[in-house]
Specification:
This protein is α/β, with parallel strands linked by helices. It is built from 21 helices and ten strands. It is 65% helix and 9% strand. The longest helix has 50 residues. The protein starts with 5 loop residues before the first helix and ends with a helix. The protein binds adenosine-5'-diphosphate.
Length: 603
């Protein structure tokens, strides 16, 4: 349940309980906000103007009432009375036009800030290094881009304008009332603490309840996701991933939280009315005596009553606005933190390119790397010639994938240097690097689009004929043709309708079209049938042709294709050579061979 703007909107927001102080707001975050607002400053100025007009006309109406009663009616000046009535009408007209523009302009600015901020944040998130995405969870990124941006935009436009208008109204009303009668003003003010305290309390309760509502809703969503996503695994193990009871429990919690919110919301209107009436009753009672004593006129009493009515709206808003600002400040902080995160992968200021263009020789010199403080790769030295095929082998967790990630510059090494054609990867423009090195991972990611578009993905300009040619070379053409709609078949959610082997073949076709100088291939560990296996091997021979290839190998047939096998263990290179060399004198390789491939080899 989302409520934008207004009374209920102000009750929602982040989940912070720490007291809010303006000094807590990150200055940089405020500067960021200003950068987004500044672009729309003329509209913001107009909105402020409209707000001032709204406030001024609103304050003038009770005063006109007083003039009408005390001056015109009392003196029987009917012409004057008509004039005041017309003026009142005109003031009302101006008021409503200004209300319209204030509303329109402030949401215009607010929505544009949301739009710009969200676009830039998304851009920023996409530019972050893989290390950032290792740290941050998708849910966190989503909530930054939705809840936080909304909370900030609300404050940035309509929230601040409402604050301005509320403050001016309150001060204006007090000043005008005080000029009429000081004591009656004090009596009228007596209900302020009651309103502030009761609304402040209700507001706090509601915020807490809404937090519960949102949490419960998010739990229900997670429940749905877990239940549906885990279904396949669960069914194959013939048990239920997420029981109906568990889900009902979450649903029940969601319902209870919503009921509590409903109950509180139902209490708001009566509380407001009761406190309003308290003020009105006080003014009527004491003011009435004053009129009877001749201390004030009937017109003043009327104006007072009208002002007291107008007083409670802004008062109520101000007692709630604290909560909104608290939420917005926290959101602004979180957004600021995000925008301040620089990608660890820095684009070179002056990118380098070898004279004759890149050819694809690779080298790692004294490379050490760790994701955090523990080293995962230590002192790696490796040279790969142009066109050579290297198979990386080693036990799970040895560091093979990490080594491959350094070659695509998903991470920079902590020590040593990775080069292509003797140029440090850190000096290669990221666009160059992307076309130079392609990596095909084990779990192929296919977009929710047609097979054709998925193959074309690396190189959008290629023709349909080239797509088919690439699919043929990648041994994918035969199975694609058998699909109900051929190349136009939609890939199901996350490629669900293709087998693991078929997805690999599609990825190979995609890599062929991208035509990189260096190919990094993480061979799927999953078992495939003999036929698919033969297709994969054939496709691999095709895609390795004329390029440097690094394969994280899991199959013996792949090792046979490699020019050189590199054995990795515990983050170090512990052996290099052909199968014959290694089986003869590398103990780690011998062990691997016995465990993984001996049966395959003899078969
Ligand atoms: P391999 O590919 O040989 O199985 P990896 O390169 O995947 O090995 O992993 C090497 C080590 O680095 C393992 O101990 C693994 O737990 C750790 N590791 C891998 N990826 C990350 C990551 N994103 N963050 C932290 N540690 C990681």
């Amino acid at each position: 349940m989302t409520i934008r703007g207004g009374f209920m909107g102000r009750l929602q927001g982040g989940g912070e309980t720490a007291p809010f102080r303006f000094s807590d707001i990150n200055r940089e975050a405020l500067a960021i906000l200003w950068r987004y607002l500044r672009v729309h400053r003329s509209r913001l100025l107009l909105a402020t103007l409209a707000t001032l007009v709204v406030t001024a006309t609103s304050l003038s109406m009770p005063y006109m009432m007083k003039v009408a009663v005390d001056t015109m009616i009392a003196q029987g000046d009917l012409r004057g009375l008509t004039l005041v009535a017309l003026l009142y009408l005109a003031a009302n007209g101006v008021y409503w036009v200004a209300v319209y523009w204030q509303g329109y302009l402030s949401s215009w600015v607010g929505q544009h800030v949301v739009y710009d901020l969200r676009r830039d944040l998304f851009d920023h998130v996409l530019q972050q290094s893989v290390a950032f995405h290792d740290r941050e969870r998708v849910g966190g990124i989503m909530s930054r881009l939705t809840n936080d941006v909304n909370a900030v935009a609300e404050i940035a436009s309509s929230g601040s304008l409402a604050l301005v208008s509320d403050l001016i109204s309150l001060i204006g009303i007090i000043v005008i009332m005080a000029t009429f009668n000081g004591r009656l003003t004090l009596v009228a003010m007596a209900s302020i603490p009651v309103v502030m305290v009761s609304m402040g309390y209700l507001g706090k309760q509601m915020r807490r309840t809404y937090r519960d509502v949102q949490q419960a809703l998010s739990d229900v969503n997670i429940g749905v996701e877990q239940g549906v996503a885990g279904m396949r695994v669960a069914q194959s193990l013939s048990r239920e991933s997420f029981t109906v009871e568990q889900f009902q429990d979450l649903s029940l919690r969601n319902m209870k939280a919503n009921l509590r919110a409903g109950l509180l919301f139902a209490a708001v209107f009566p509380t407001m009315t009761i406190t309003n009436m308290l003020g009105v009753a006080l003014v009527l009672g004491y003011g009435g005596t004053l009129v009877a004593n001749g201390a004030i006129t009937v017109g003043v009493l009327l104006a007072f009553l009208s002002y007291v009515y107008r007083f409670f709206g802004p008062l109520r808003e101000l007692s709630l606005v604290y909560n909104t600002f608290q939420a917005a400040a926290a959101s602004l902080d979180r957004i600021g933190d995000y925008l301040a995160t620089e990608s660890e992968i820095v684009e070179p200021a002056r990118p380098e390119r070898p004279g004759g263009g890149f050819r694809g020789s690779l080298a790692l010199h004294a490379v050490s790397f760790g994701y955090d403080h523990t080293l995962v790769l230590e002192d790696i030295d490796l040279d790969v010639a142009v066109g050579e095929t290297i198979a990386l082998v080693g036990p799970t967790g040895a560091g093979k994938s990490t080594l491959a990630k350094l070659l695509t510059r998903l991470y920079d090494p902590q020590a040593g240097v990775v080069t292509i054609d003797a140029v440090d990867l850190r000096q290669i423009a990221s666009a160059d690097l992307r076309s130079l090195v392609t990596s095909v991972s084990q779990d192929v990611f296919l977009f929710a689009d047609t097979i054709r578009e998925n193959i074309r993905y690396g190189n959008p300009e290629v023709s349909d004929t080239e797509v088919v040619a690439a699919a043929k070379r990648a041994q994918a053409h035969v199975f694609i043709q058998k699909l109900p709609r051929g190349y136009d078949s939609q890939v199901g959610e996350l490629g669900a309708m293709l087998s693991g082997g078929q997805k690999q073949l599609v990825a190979f076709a995609r890599a062929l079209l991208a035509d990189p100088k260096v190919l990094i291939l993480d061979e799927a560990t999953a078992n495939v049938d003999a036929y698919t296996e033969s297709l994969i091997q054939k496709a691999m021979t095709e895609i390795r042709r004329d390029r440097t290839t690094i394969i994280i190998a899991h199959r013996f047939s792949t090792l046979r294709q490699a020019d050189r096998i590199v054995v990795v263990d515990g983050g170090r290179i512990v052996g290099e050579g052909t199968h014959t060399d290694l089986i003869r004198d590398n103990a780690i390789y011998q062990r691997l061979y016995r465990r993984e491939w001996a049966t395959e080899d003899s078969a």
